[in-house]
Amino acid sequence: MQRYGSKLVVLIGMIVLLIIAGCGNLSVSPGKGELVEPPKTGTGQGLPNGETAAAPAAKATVYPLKVKDATGKEFIFDKAPARLVSISPSETETLFALGLGEQVYGVSDFCDYPAEALKKPKMGSIVKPNEEALLASNADLIVTGVSMKIPAVEQLRSLKLNVFKVDPKTVDDVLNNTLVFGQIFNKQEQAEKLVAEMKADRQKVTDAVKNLQPEQKKRVLLEFSPGWTVGKGEFMDELITLSGGINIYGEMAGYSQLNEEKVIAANPQIILYPSNLIDDKSKKTLDQIIKERSGWEKIDAVKNNRIVGVDKDWISRPGPRITQGLVDIAKGIYPELVK
């Protein structure tokens, strides 16, 4: 379904046109999925002599289409891939949201949304999927996301599997990847509509908190899994900052194990946790665990009962529902501002 364009690498003066939602920013961070050529659509050309064109036709991708994924690998699509496998819950949600559910043959063991995804054949884990199942799927394209590392992607490619990886670190990356998928699968209008809805969620939050003064901003701890939090450079940290909060782990990069003394010293005013998560070991909810920790009764968030549950999947999956997670977080931090 594709031919790989290693022979067509023309880097002199290459224009990378990235349709990115928000901020009017056309630059792209390395490692994100990107269009290598300007988007081609079936909207027609300008008419001479000032003539007025008829209403434009629905946007349609013109193939061949050249795209790079997050590993830097260049793909050339002769037509829209028709038989798909997704081994990432976020990307499964995106494919279904674009109206591609019937073309999704298989999904990972963890893909549970929308409900239709549960009926699809299972392809194994999101970190190391079932190679035999992937080979048997005869998929035109296999899509994976943040959980699969590059060596695992390359292992699958060594088996002649066409694996396209995305690695979103920000909300803009999620929006951009959605638009790139719209191009690849000839679903541009659906992608643009979805991105517009997500941008509206983001605007609602940023408008609500834009007048906060520095001294009004709340100190926030996000414990997304028992004993684990997140720092700068990851999309969950951005959800806190977009919501007007101050992440007490914001000076650290990536994902971190909690240091309980550090948390007590930082004295968060809000503690966010996934409300629909049960700890495997203790069988307790995370808010129960937080309240029972020695010394944490001194923390403002615990004293004032500002331990706020948010939807686990909304905040942890960088897909179509990520901005719903943003609204959820913003309501948790500033319920008086975000309705």
UniProtKB/TrEMBL annotation:
Q: Which domain of life is it from?
A: Bacteria
The Fe/B12 periplasmic-binding domain, residue ranges = 83-337
Which protein family is named in the record? Belongs to the bacterial solute-binding protein 8 family.
- Name of the protein in its database record: ABC transporter substrate-binding protein
